[in-house]
Amino acid sequence: MAQLLGIDTGGTYTDAVLFSRDSGVLASAKALTTKHDLSICIGEAIGTVLDGLEDQTAIELVSISTTLATNAVVEGQGSPVCLLLIGHDDKALDRAGLGSALGQDPVVFLTGGHDASGDEAAPLDLAAAREAIERHAPNVSAFAVAGLFAVRNPAHEIEVCALVQELTGRPVTAAHQLASSLDAPRRALTAVLNARLIPQLQDLILSVRKLLAERQIGAPLMIVKGDGSLISAEVALKRPIETVLSGPAASTIGATYLAGQSNMLVVDIGGTTSDIAVLRDGRPLLSEDGATIGGRKTMVQAIAVQTFGLGGDSEIRMERGSGLQLGPRRNLPISLLAHEFPSVLESLEEQLAAERLPAYAGLFAMRQRALDTSEAAMTSSERSLWRSLQDGPVALAELLSGAAMERPFKRVLDRGLAIVSGFTPSDASHVLNRHEGWSHAAAETAARLFSRRAELLGITLPEDPAQLSATVHESMVTASARLLVMASLTESLPAALGDKPDELGRYFLDQAVKRPCDSGSPIHESPIDFTLRLKLPVVAIGAPAANYYPDIAGRLNAEITVPGHAEVCNAIGAVVSSVSQSVTATVTTPGEGRYRVHLVTTMREFASLEHAITFADEESRRLARKAAVSAGARDPEIHSSRNDTLVEDIGGRRVFVESKIDAVAIGRPGLGQAAKS
């Protein structure tokens, strides 16, 4: 009986399942994610499911899904990188949100680049590239390189990447390796996000490899991509951006397995995000134009998942006139922090007993992961904050003794090096006895402090912890219901809706998802029946799903199911996926009787269209097969399709413009020696 090990590392929990294709889930376990050292949580989770296994070396496949990359993009976090733009002008930063995504990270404009036909537009300035690389290398963890029309000719990107490796040995991402479309700023954005995520994925993969080696498990190690397919760990280390939406993709695949339905909405709620996908005829819809994560439009092919910054550990903010606002940033639940560090409860009680409420009452900070650069790359203020957190959590009232420390603290948070702990929906669930296992007393004390802080801001909230927690729970339920409706509408009517509903539409949604008792007195009741009916069944998965989604069913007149093993669904999806790799070849005509084939590895010219198409088809199929085998597939099947673009000239003759040949290789992952013997 083939036995597979699935692992899912999320922002709050790390899950593991021991799985058999014949018998399904054999064992499962959860452990709190320890971002500062992922080997701790992964070791605990896989130890629970494997320690009862007689022969652990018989595991034939290990597969990982993770929401760490998705969460980092949604929360605006990542390691510092340097972007090298070849042939672009500074207006490129105004497109695709590239400038805002870079933030304070350096960008260098280099002379070079190509035109739409793949011809060199200007010689590459390698001397300037060398100077920029050596200048910025000490302060960044990785480089991203994006050249103008590099998808038509990648020569300059390849040269600069080689120079980065020669001079620094740092990870470097070439934009042409991630996408074949012509939108240069979006390719550059995708390359930047990829470079930022490399250190985080390295931590994950190295942690798993170390633990498997200790247990003498030699099975292939795979990672779930955003489109739901698998790639080998080696490939994922070079292209971590492809694991953005890995968690949602795995959850969709896993939900399909658990629910056994062919048409449904899948919602995966974790600690940081809620991810909603649509399945039609048993297959998840793919994003046609690249995945959008945290408002950033990438060129990553992925399941058409709508990701929202709403989860059980969402930050709760107070805004005058708007009440409680949830997310998108994740806070560490205060009940969890106090469970791990009992001194936190003592500090909370001291703050509550003080005559004057301290600044940042009820909020703490602690390190989240190790530095990804040297301390020398930090400002003196950032260095001081970082060192203050070396022995464990510190109350923000103590850490941020003056307003001057707020900006450097935000930079430390944005890099994902530290996290704030405070009252979250998970803490409200502890107060309401919907969740247990952490510090109930800390959750109640933090709730009282939260209400007192709101009072100082002129916002009235219930003083009783249970009443406040019920308000927070209701906010989570209504926000989650609203997201389900919006995701459903956006999937079917994206053009009509736009990015946001108008005020009337928002009012309608708010009224429709409220509890009947919230609608007001009969005298002021609206004459309109705000009723919705969700036609597609909903499968809700993730650790908090059972806490919130059963309350939503009646409000949306929907069939909502939380299946068995919902809490480890992502880990299940990780082991039931297949390997899929695609390669696109583009054929253009730069002049009469000339036909060019553009591939990620080369550019070739032919005198006839027939020969160009033949070469493009054969080479794209060969490269797709090679990529699939490299990604871990065994005996992949190859399929290709061709799409021509023709225009009609003045005389009515149809003239060739370009042709795209897409080759896709699909296969099951190769298993370890135990399966072959």
Question: How would you characterize this protein structure?
Answer:
The chain starts with a strand and ends with a helix. It is 37% helix and 23% strand. It has 23 helices and 29 strands. The model is unreliable at 493-501, 517-524 and 673-677 (pLDDT under 50). The strands form 7 sheets. Strands 3-2-1-4-9-10 form a 6-stranded mixed sheet, with helices on both faces. A hairpin with a 3-residue loop joins strand 1 and strand 2 (13-20). Helix 9 (334-340) crosses helix 15 and helix 14 (425-431) crosses helix 15. The chain has 677 residues and is an alpha/beta fold.
Describe the structure using short key phrases.
677 residues, 6-stranded mixed β-sheet, alpha/beta
Order of the strands making up the biggest sheet: 3-2-1-4-9-10
What is the makeup of the main sheet?
6 strands, mixed
Number of DSSP strand runs: 29
Low-confidence stretches: 493-501, 517-524, 673-677
Mean pLDDT, all residues: 85
Count of helical regions:
23
Structural class: alpha/beta
List the helices and strands and how they pair.
Layout lengths: L2 E7 L3 E8 L3 E9 L5 H13 L10 E6 L1 H7 L6 E6 L11 H5 L4 E4 L15 H11 L5 E6 L7 H13 L4 E3 L9 H31 L6 E4 L5 E3 H6 L7 H14 L4 E6 L4 E7 L2 E2 L7 E2 L2 E2 L8 E3 L5 E6 L3 E8 L1 E2 H7 L2 H11 L10 E4 L12 H9 L5 E2 H4 L6 H9 L3 E5 L2 H7 L8 H17 L8 H28 L1 H4 L5 H11 L24 E4 L3 H4 L1 H7 L3 E2 L7 H7 L3 E13 L2 E5 L4 E4 L2 H22 L6 E12 L5 E14 L5 H4 L1
Parallel strand pairs: 1-4, 4-9, 5-6, 5-7, 7-8, 11-23, 19-22, 23-24
Antiparallel strand pairs: 1-2, 2-3, 9-10, 11-12, 12-13, 12-16, 14-15, 17-18, 20-21, 20-22, 25-26, 25-29, 26-27, 28-29
